[in-house]
Amino acid sequence: MNGLAAKFAACVAALAACAVAALVVHALRADLGATRQQLVEARQALAGRDDVIARMRQDTAERARQQARLDRSQAAIASKLDATRLENRRLTDENAALRAWAGTRLPDDVVRLQANPALTGADAYVEYVPGGEPLHAADARAPHQR
Length: 146
Hints:
- With 146 residues, the protein is an all-alpha fold.
- 79% of the residues lie in helices and 0% in strands.
- The chain is built from four helices and no strands.
- The protein starts with a helix and ends in an 18-residue tail after the last helix.
């Protein structure tokens, strides 16, 4: 019986080893599944970042095109302004009456208008308008109107 008990013990040990191996394989498969899921999520995140990068590159290219268009516009405006100034200078040099008129003093109202700051946008206008002065209703007339 001793041989039978040894065989039985060996079978139990082999069965225990198989059970442990099965548990290890099951745990490894679970880890593999979790790792595959992490890989899928990482690929999705990477694809999302790639999409963001592509959109940012497109935005950058569009802004560069807009900047180039703006630069061309500004250059054209500056060129026109220079040509107009040159033409004005030429006309002033050629015409004595124009030279005399250009040398006269501006009217006080024009000087006052030039003394006011240039309004560039709604915020500048709101800051420039004095507070506390009521506006007339759309249907109301000012006292000096009939």
